[in-house]
Design brief:
This protein has about 250 residues and is α/β, with parallel strands linked by helices. Helices cover about 35% and strands about 15% of the residues. The protein has a single domain, classed as TIM Barrel (Alpha-Beta Barrel). α1 packs parallel to α2 and α3 packs parallel to α4. The longest helix is centred in the first third of the chain and has 16 residues. It holds the Pfam family CutC. This is PF03932 family protein CutC. It is found in: Cytoplasm.
């Protein structure tokens, strides 16, 4: 069986998750913490330890949950985080920022790209799903090559990549040399339709709730609903790999 040319990326929150993704046939991982918040920047030690697993890891750089319009102080913090995660062993970074009018914050994005290039000329730079909150994701995708991006992660502006497949196909056409990676709510059953868009990669969290990890009844913060934390499910990773290779 010839392996699919479409890459498989798994979002993970631990070195253990990276090992599951690696052993299940993923091409790379996106590393973050707080997956239930949409993902936040991992610590230096987490990046270092994940790097030791051997699978290429792209670190999400997002300094807080919520929207993607960032203050100058937040941008400065993320510029520093970009440099830190790359120096700690990440092979790429995942970044994003919007202006209040829901266009890409090109000034912030250039700073992130410049920070990455100051550490590594070969670092891969992905625009995250901030693009799905942009007023025109297709037009935004067309600007990314000039900004120095390697790829963009998108659901086509829809709640799930499956629902946004038609827009993802338009983004593939608009993005030129920038790779388009389909992600958001992806299951192995969706992969065939997403490959048909022309996407260069598919992205999924392949997560399941960890057993006995909840602390219902003793909340640990305003956003704590007592849910368990997530771990990477080996069966889902393997099923995604099979779907790509079918």
């Amino acid at each position: 069986m010839t392996p699919s040319p479409v890459a498989l990326e798994i979002a993970v929150t631990s070195p253990q998750g990276a090992v599951v993704a690696r052993d299940g046939g993923a091409d790379r991982v996106e590393l973050c913490v707080g997956l239930e918040l949409g993902g936040l920047t991992p610590s230096q030690a987490l990046v270092e330890t994940t790097h030791e697993t051997g699978i290429p890891a792209h670190a999400l750089v997002r300094c807080r949950p919520g929207g993607f319009v960032h203050t100058p102080d937040e941008v400065e913090l993320m510029v520093r985080e970009v440099r830190t995660v790359l120096r700690s062993g990440a092979t790429g970074v995942v970044v994003g920022a919007l202006r209040p009018d829901r266009t890409l914050d090109e000034d912030a994005l250039r700073r992130f790209v410049d920070a990455a290039r100051s550490v590594s000329a070969t670092a891969e730079i992905t625009l995250h799903r901030a693009i799905d909150h942009a007023v025109d994701p297709v037009a935004a995708a067309a600007t990314l090559a000039a900004l120095g991006f390697t790829r963009v992660l998108t659901s086509g502006g829809a709640p799930t990549a499956g629902a946004g497949a038609a827009t993802i196909a338009r983004m593939v056409d608009a993005a030129g040399p920038v790779q388009v990676m389909a992600g958001a709510g992806v299951t192995p059953a969706d992969i065939g339709a997403l490959v048909a868009t022309g996407a260069a990669a598919v992205h999924l969290s392949a997560k399941r709730a960890a057993p006995d990890s909840a602390h219902a009844g003793v909340p640990m913060g305003g956003a704590d609903d007592g849910s368990a934390h997530f771990v990477t499910d080996a069966e889902v990773v393997a099923a995604a790999r099979r779907a790509l290779d079918a």
